[in-house]
Design goal:
With about 375 residues, this protein is an alpha/beta fold. It has helices spanning about 5-15, 45-55, 75-85, 100-110, 125-130, 145-155, 180-185, 210-215, 240-250, 255, 265-280, 280-300, 320-335, 365-375, and strands at about 30, 90-95, 115-120, 135-140, 160-165, 190-195, 220-225, 235-240, 315, 335, 340, 350-355. Helix content is about 40%, strand content about 15%. The strands form three sheets. Strands 2-8-7-6-5-3-4 form a seven-stranded mixed sheet, sandwiched between helices.
Length: about 375
């Protein structure tokens, strides 16, 4: 059967623009690419604790067997959601199968026709996809520009408004001024929704995320945490009121019409949270490495090329798909797994190398990779 020409043309356009995506092969390079910020994905302690937990509770199911509303709501769900709610000082917690499912489910169902969604222009694709499925109107505001946000609010009086942002932006690694944003939101009685995908395991005394770290949780309508980054496993949770949880159970289609996570997956989430509670060494090592990375890039006069960030994501702007890919390949040939982020994932002219820092990266590795980068860009 012939492949449709329209689709072939789109693939060819990507090839011509040097932006065709392909699946990378596993490698043994030094990791500056993954979201495994505190090494939980490779933690033997978490792996063994999960296995022992399942044995101790005589849980031997390989799958959930159905959606949570039919047969998949195994007892581990309740225990894990209660634990997560307590950990995040939230009234309720509702687990989703992934961060993508959580964002699509929330934004497609919560804002209603006649409501307005105002979202940061750099919000993740999963947020945008959920918004596209919503019956509410939506506008983007300039990145972290709350004057622009306020103008949009003022142009839409007597409207129920949801404001959407992230505490750490996945491509830039920067953080909004949450106190200022909350002040704007409160002034106009808006509902503030925050994605903390890249803040869990990074900010807070126990890696709780930026909102708790700043003691602002009571000002947020909903927090969305995903587990594929700092927690090193899979799944996501929406934190909010009991009414919000009940609403999502009834109306979020990505929750209702999907098979639940397996008992093993939920147990891994629970053991990951237990590990956050008791092991602060990884968090401290990550924070030390973030400070050290910023010191070295300043010493090597690289700071002007980087987007300002105090998170585990550090991005250096190198315009042009071909140029940034060639530097990424050169770093990889020297043993460092650093990925190029190309347009159209980021706007044309904003192509970058994205360094993800981890608790397990050594000071020597950080110094060497930045020294190599300096030799390639200057």
């Amino acid at each position: 059967m012939n492949f449709p020409k329209k689709l072939s043309d789109k693939l060819e356009s990507r090839r011509q623009n040097k932006s065709l995506r392909i699946l990378p092969q596993p490698n043994e390079l030094i990791d500056f690419a993954s979201n495994d910020y505190i090494g939980f994905s490779k933690s033997g302690a978490i792996f063994n604790a999960t296995h022992q937990f399942l044995l101790d509770h005589n849980i031997k199911s390989n799958g959930a067997t159905g959606s949570r509303l039919i047969s998949g709501n195994h007892t581990l769900y309740t225990a894990t959601e209660n634990y997560i709610a307590q950990f995040h000082q939230s009234e309720s917690a509702l687990l989703f199968n992934s961060g993508y499912d959580a964002n699509v489910g929330f934004f497609s169902s919560v804002p209603q026709k006649g409501d307005l969604i105002l979202y940061d222009e750099l919000c993740h694709a999963s947020i945008r996809d959920g918004i596209q499925l919503s019956n509410a109107k939506s506008y983007k505001f300039k990145h972290n520009d709350f004057e622009d946000l306020e103008l949009l609010i003022q142009r839409n009086p007597n409207t129920l408004i949801y404001i959407v942002t992230e505490t750490v932006f996945s491509m830039d690694g920067d953080c909004p001024n949450m106190e200022e944003l909350i002040a704007v939101s409160g002034k106009y009685n808006c509902y503030l929704v925050v994605d903390e995908a890249h803040a869990l395991g990074v900010f807070g005394e126990k890696g709780e995320g930026l909102i708790q770290h700043l003691h602002l949780r009571d000002k947020i309508f909903a927090r969305i945490m995903t587990f594929g980054k700092g927690l090193g496993c899979h799944g996501a949770v929406v934190l909010g009121s009991e009414k919000l949880k009940s609403y999502l159970v009834n109306f979020a289609r990505s929750f209702i019409y999907t098979t639940g996570l397996s008992p093993h997956s939920v147990a891994t989430i629970l053991m990951g949270y237990h590990h956050l509670e008791k092991d602060k060494n990884a968090l401290e090592s990550l924070r030390d490495n973030i400070v050290f990375f910023n010191q070295v890039k300043k010493m090597l006069y690289l700071s002007p090329l980087f987007i300002r960030s105090k998170s585990a994501i550090q991005s250096v702007i190198i315009p042009g798909n071909e140029k940034v890919k060639s530097i990424a390949v050169a770093l990889q040939q020297n043993g460092f797994d650093v990925k190029a982020i190309l347009s159209p994932t980021v706007p044309e002219g904003q192509e970058r190398l994205r360094f993800c820092l981890h608790s397990f990266n050594s000071k020597e590795e950080i110094t060497k990779v930045l020294t190599l980068l300096s030799s390639f860009v200057y």
